[in-house]
Each structure stands twice: as structure tokens, then as C-alpha cells.
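Raw record, unedited: FAD-binding oxidoreductase
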Amino acid sequence: MTDPRLAELTRLLPDLKLSTDPGDLDHYGRDWTRRWTPAPLAVAWPASVGEVQAIVRWANGQGVAIVPSGGRTGLSGGAVAARGELVVSLDRMNRVLDVDPVDRTLTVEPGIALEAVQNAAREHGLLYPVNFAARGSCQIGGNIATNAGGIRVVRYGNTRQWIAGLKVVTGAGDLLDLNRGLVKNASGYDLRHLVIGSEGTLGIVVEATLSLTSPPPPSQVMLLAVPAMDALMKVFAEARRRLRLEAFEFFTDKALRYVLAHGAQKPFAEEHPFYVVTEFDAADGQAENDTLAFFEYCVGEGWVVDGVIASSEAQAASLWRLREGITESLAPHKPYKNDVSVRISAVPAFMDEMQTLLDAEYPYFEVVWFGHIGDGNLHINVLKPADLDDAAFVDQCEHVTTLLVETLVRHGGSISAEHGIGLVKKPWLGSVRSEAEIALMRGIKAVWDPNGIMNPGKLL
């Protein structure tokens, strides 16, 4: 470790775990995007708030940029370190610090995995409801940095709704204690909400107080086969009217084929164009009657042509795997990803325009899409042909993304629903935010991070 800047960091923090091993640099310098070659200066693993503050102050003094690192499951390049940055991994700060059953809060360090948070809440008879497929590897700090959503937004909302308090080390090295778990706090600007969704550009979350809730009543999982795209929202509207929904997800026949090839079980004898997996309360006999009435009505209207209800937890998990396994099954094909959202009421018109656009612009590429249709969020995956150069593939996809953004603007949508802007979507930030908003965002960053060391180049 011959770099004099790192020697100074080691002198300041002799117990800090620090590595320049090429394997560590490659592993911690990237997220689930694979478009940039990792090239960090080093990787640091602080074990305390004090070490995080000292690292940030050292970085300011040395002019070294910092990339905060959680589980690196992001899809927008927000955790990429490709320009000599110091990666600050929060892996070692992964403890549960406090559980308060009266306030129904759980205080944790940022490096704890989402699944571990859920398990800790469950041990106390409570629920942390934010949930998605990467729960075992994503970290709560990264969830906060991207305001992660997932599969139960229909009932519980995004991460933002469940953050009662935050401790944050700013880009200047100051420690802020934001909101302190208060339910009511009418004392001016709530800076906590600036940090949520800020993608590590303002500071590093070092502690989070999470709100918990009561576990839901017993639920039921159902998979539906849908014959046409225009029936999807009709099924959703009817499900929301008759059932108490926890989740409502859809995917296409193409998505299903990849998941089945990845080891999932085929749900129906025949193949169908679209599928819906939904979860809803099933606490009593009336809920069972409502479920049957919902299914029979949708079949009678021609919106659903087949269906299966899980008869066990194992079968429920098998049905959910059909949706949650899509991203992993597509990864070997180096997909170019769009993560877009519109208002729920605009979904049918947007989907129709989007499909027309994709058919016209990608005649030779396979496009796989799926999403959280119950909250207006669609994931579009364009699979790279094996014989096409990576750069040429990205160029063509970015051209189509520009056209897709024009469609989104017409429908009042967003180019990023839940994965952030990062590096991937930065060219289209102006489609979602006005010039005045972006100027204010830059001003906020300048106050929190006066030397511009926090995750530079991301978002702004």
C-alpha cells in the first residue's frame, strides 16, 4: 500500500480494515450494472461512526472521492467506483442496536441486510414490510439511499414511509441526528427526507431507526393467466375492489421462459401471454368467498383464462419465485434495463404506447418486461445478442431510451421508479426534474458536501 494518501489514512486509523487487493477492488467497485470497469483507489470497511467521520474528513483533506457501498444490488450504476474513489463499505456496521416495542421501532446500523431486519422485527412479533427479491444481500443503508420499493408497495409504500430517524455523516464529516424517531416533529425542514433517495451524494447513513407495524393477517397467493395486455389493469382494479391486496405483480410469457430455464416449476400446462401473481388477506371464510367471486368474475369477463391458488407455504414460495427470479435469470444475458413509472391511472395508455415503440425500435432484440403494475412501475429488459459489441448495444438502447423518455413525459412519468439515477439514467434527469429543481438539488449538495467528494458523478 504505497499510495501516500492511504498511508496517511492508516496512520490516522490504525485499526481500520483497508484493502487494495485487486479482487476486492473489482468486487466492491461495481454493482449489478456491468458497463464500467471498477478502478477504486482502495476499499475501506469502517466499524464505527467515528471511523466513518474520520474517513470523510481525511477524504476532504486529501481530495479523494468516496463511493458509499452497501449490498451493491443496484441497477443504475450508483455504487460504481471507476475513477480512483475510495469505496466505503458498510459491511462491518451490521448490528441491531435497539428494539423498542412501545414505539414499534428498530434501530440498526446501515450494513445490515434487509432480510436480517425483517427477521429481527419478526422476533418481536412485528413487521418491517419493505420487501423484494434481493432481501438477503441488499443492505438497509442502500435501501434508504434509493428509497427502495419492491413487491408490497401497494399496501405499505416505499422505504421512505418506514424511516423514523437517521444518523448521517455529511460530506463535510459532521454527524447529524435527524428526527430521532419522533412521530410528530414540526420544527422546520425534515432533513431526513433529503437523505432518503439521495444515492449517497449528500452523506453516509450510519444509523437508521425503522418504524415497524403489526404483522398482517394470514395471506393467500394466487397466480393468474391473463390473455391480453389490456386486461391486466382490469384485473387489478377488480382485485383492489374485492380483496385487501398486499402485492400485485405481472410478467410476460418471455419472462416466464427464462425463469423456468433457471429452475422454476411450470405453473400451467399451456403458455399464456401475461401472468399476475398477487397476495392478499385470507383471514376468514369471507375472504375465501371474496377470492372465489373475484376469480369467477374475471374469468367470466374474459380477463383471466386460468389460475392457481397456493395450498401451502412451499407452493406460495414457488409461485413467487416465478416473479422474483426474473432478474437473476436474465443476468447472464447482459440486459439493458429501464425502470420506469407512471400514475396507476396512466398505465394502460402508457403500456400500449410503450409496446408499440419497443416493437418498432427493437425488431432484432428480445425485450422482457415485468413489474409492480399495482404501483405503476414497469421494468423493461433488453437482452444483448451474443454477437453484438457491448458499446454498440448500449448506444442503440440509449437511443430508444430517449424515445421512451418522450413517451414518459407525455404521461407524466419518471425514468427511475425505484433504482435511482446513478450513472445510467443521469442523461434523462431533466425529463423528470425542471431546471429550477435541479439547480436547487445542486445547491443542497453544495451545502452538505462542500468539496464534492460524496459519490461524485452520480445523480447530478
